Amino acid sequence: MTRLRGTLSVCIDAFPAWTRPLALAFVVYALSFGMRMLEYPAWQNPEYMLDGEYLLATHDAYHWIAGAEGFEFGAGHPMSELVRLAAAFTGTTPAAVGFWLPPVMASLVAVGVFGWAAALGGVEAGVCAGVLASLAPGFLARTLLGYCDTDLVTLLFPLLMGLGPAFWMARFMFTPLQVARRLLARRTGTSDVVPDAVAVMMTSRGEADDDWHGGALSPRWLALLAGSGLVGSWGAEWHSLFPYLIRYDVVLLFGCICVFGRPGMRRALLVGGLAYTLPMLVGAWGLLFALALGWGLHRADARFMAFVRGRALPVAGWCAVAVLLFDPDVFRMFLNSIAGYVKRSGDPSPGAGGDDPLVYPSVAQSIIEVQDLSLSEVLSYFHPWLWVALAGLGGFVPLLLARPAAFFLLPLGVLSFLSVKLGGRMVMFGAPVLALGFALPMVWGVQRVLRHDLRTGWVRLALSAVLLVIVATPFVDLLPAMTQGPIINKRHAEALRHIRTATPEDSMVWIWWDWGYSAHHFAHRRTIADGASHGGPSLYVPAAVFSTANPRFAWQLIRYTAERGGIPGSVFEGMGGAQAQELVHRLGIEKMTFADAPRQYLVVSYDMLRLGFWITNFGTWDFLSREGKGYAISSIPQQLSYSLDTGEVQVQGNTTGVLASTIDVFDEGQLERRDYIVRQGGSGNAIADYAARQRNIESRRNIHFLFNKVTGEKLVLDDRLYNTVMVQLLLCSPDDTRFAPYFKLIYDNVYARVYEVR
Fold first, then answer.
1. CA triple 480-486-490, angle to 5 deg
2. Distance between CA atoms of residues 412 and 399, nearest Å
3. CA pair distance 621, 614, nearest whole angstrom
4. In terms of CB atoms within 10 Å, which of 326, 400, 427, 520 comes out highest?
5. Nearest CA-CA partner of 310 in 267, 374, 258
6. What is the Cα–Cα distance from 65 to 706, expressed in whole angstroms?
7. What is the pLDDT of residue 24?
8. 180: left (phi over 0), alpha (psi -120 to 50) or beta
9. Please, which residues have CB within 8 angstroms of residue 485's CB and are 6 or more apart in sequence?
């Protein structure tokens, strides 16, 4: 065995040292990607595909897909460009890329966390930490198959932008514990027993001890620092979070240099820090500084070297950095972002003020990812087992004490716990923090109890592998169960695709904002609202159309908006609350005339019904009382049986049921309807018929059942929701006299309909 171990060591040592962590990084990526593929069998459902193309799992994915196709304002965004280039490279469609890109990109987070483990001194433990972070439920839920959104890079970029400085700091700075011991030694008057580990490492790697900067400004370090800075700068183009993280990282690096920098090297470290901070703050212009610094050091010109060694460069450079940090626009954006996460009952219109401000309903309360989480829920989003999450949280504290670079990750952990106030979308940021806090101390701790001859890299790797097998066990069942399928029904997508070929290019599509981006992709038409325009008037105006039971009001509000350029904000522009409410009243009772405008199309779908409460809550908004009333809808999980003859619905196994007012059964290519109120009577005796009708109404619950035979879904609606435009236009005959004067049916596949607004 000893001879075999020696032979393996000789073979491994024949490869360059950098190949071993590279091979482990590949293993980490493969493990993460392979685990994520456990979800794929759940997508083998014909309902999840349209013409051989998988439907996507999040609304925002269709924004980037449409942008990759060159449509609407997503075009040119880095995310859309990534999808476009990937589609061109693979020879497939942007939608196909949108389905497969999440596991490909999200698995890079595992590699990023592995890199952080290496920077913190635990490369072998990084195998466990990397895979564990990539599979954290909070991150996994936002990066499953079909979840093609900026979350794929929102976590990756913060890891990469701090990774270069982390390696640099580990090489040229003391740890907090070392600094504390040095301070204690000075206070007690004892000799400094802390070895200058940095100098020892530099000497062992052949770097000149007489070099004034100790190798901290060597070309490879400058390149690594500048590259990390450029990642941060580029990240600001992807997401509004990065300007804040950039400023934190800049301040942190400056503080670490001042506190943990090795005596005699702080000035050189401050100069090196500029090679990181300037590219991060000003992009390519800052890169010029790093290039000039590297070129000057290479030439070793006497005057340049004197300038770099002096005080002027670090003082002037960091003063410039301070000026760049305090950007009023960034702080204004920060305040607006915080306001966006606060749950409000209403959104004041721009310029609202005076005694009668115009206040719209707020969408924030209805968005799941903005809803608050409890502390126990936050911990469950790190790992299904509570003890793993708690161990990771506790283990990160000694990492902060042992490695100052770990402070770069601290804001990610803070953001995750702010989910208790700012909503669940923040929880994914804590995954790397807790994964590193769990794996590194665990591997180090177990190794310390082993014999000295077992404290090797191979043993640490084995410990990491065993640990990973243990903590990855629950994900085998969890991953398939997390699949929610596509965000849009197959037949809904077919209806939107029909619009693309059956309508003028300048037409406007009235659809609920959740599917605005889907319409951009399938229909290539402008929508009245979408994932970026769903606040204030863009929320209320379409909601009012869908929520009303008055077809004339819906028609006139659409035409009134179209006459004003199809911009919801122009409908009530310059009005106070009373004036806006008066206009709403007039649109419902007065017959108005309108100028010609681009054609308008209204889409109703079965998908919308599930959001019936929120749509009506926004659409019934009263500008005077500043509140709306959401109508009732419920999804019934129990098995139900029903009789189309009598209208009785009962839970299977029960002997009694309820008498419904209506039953509507959705099936492939067929809608079967029963109205048990309208069809009563017919004896020829008006008085007897009226009495029978009243007895029938009194015996029935004022509720309406919808059965979906394709999905097995069962919905029950109250009378108010059932009579809204969005429900009745989906169910009624195209010749229904209530709607025919205002809306013309141009497409119907039972589950979705498209109407032309007359």
1. 130
2. 15
3. 11
4. 427
5. 267
6. 33
7. 94
8. alpha
9. 42, 43, 45, 47, 48, 57
> For tokens 């770990």, what's the residue?
406
Q: Are 662 and 679 in contact (CB under 8 A)?
A: no
- DSSP per-residue string spanning 564-584: TTT-GGGTSTT--HHHHHHHH
DSSP per residue, 309-374 = HSSHHHHHHHHHHHHHH--HHHHHHHHHHHHHHS--SEEEPTT--SSS--EEEPSGGG-GGGS---
CA distance 540 to 556: 15
| Sheet-wide strand order for 658-659 | 640-642, 648-651, 658-659
DSSP state of 261: B
What distance in Å separates the CA atoms of residue 468 and residue 111, rounded to the nearest whole number?
15
**Residues 14-35: what's their mean pLDDT?**
86
Asked whether 539 and 616 are in contact (CB, 8 A), the reply is: no
φ, ψ dihedrals at 700, nearest 5°: -105, 145
What burial class does residue 665 get, using C-beta atoms within 10 Å of its C-beta: 0-12 exposed, 13-18 middle, 19+ buried?
middle
**3 state DSSP class of 746:** strand
Q: Residue 751: phi, psi to the nearest 5?
A: -90, -15
Q: Are 662 and 722 in contact (CB under 8 A)?
A: yes
**422 CB-near residues (< 8 Å, 6+ apart):** 338, 341, 370, 372
- The model carries a pTM of 0.86
**Torsion angle of C-alpha atoms 650, 656, 659, 662, degrees rounded to 10:** 10
* Three-class SS state of 506: coil
Q: Where are the domains of the chain?
A: 164-331, 496-605, 633-723
CATH 3.40.1380.40 is the classification of domain 496-605: yes
Decide if 97 contacts 79 (C-beta within 8 A). no
Q: How far is 148 from 62, CA to CA, in rounded Å?
A: 8
Residue 754, SS3 per DSSP: strand
3-state DSSP call for residue 436?
Answer: helix
What is the structure's pLDDT at 671?
Answer: 94
**Under a CB-based contact definition with an 8 Å cutoff, are residues 426 and 371 in contact?**
no
Among 486, 366, 382, smallest CA distance to 429 is for: 382
Whether pLDDT at 353 is above 60: no
In this prediction, residue 498 carries a pLDDT of 97
Q: State the CB neighbour count (10 A cutoff) for residue 710.
A: 15
The residues pairing with 359 across neighbouring beta strands, listed in sequence order, are 348
What's at 27, amino acid-wise? V
Q: Residue 21 is inside which H or E element, if any?
A: helix 19-36
Q: Which residue has the tokens 């770097």?
A: 207
User: How wide is the angle at C-alpha 391 spanned by C-alphas 386 and 397, nearest 5°?
Assistant: 140
**Residue pLDDT, tens place only, 157-204:** 999 999 999 999 998 988 888 888 888 877 776 655 444 433 333 333
Q: Are 348 and 615 in contact (CB under 8 A)?
A: no
Dist. CA 338–CA 326, nearest whole Å: 18
Strands 658-659 and 53-54: unpaired
DSSP-assigned states of every residue in 100-135: HHHHHHHHHHHHHHHHHHHHTT-TTHHHHHHHHHHT
Structure tokens at 8: 């393996």
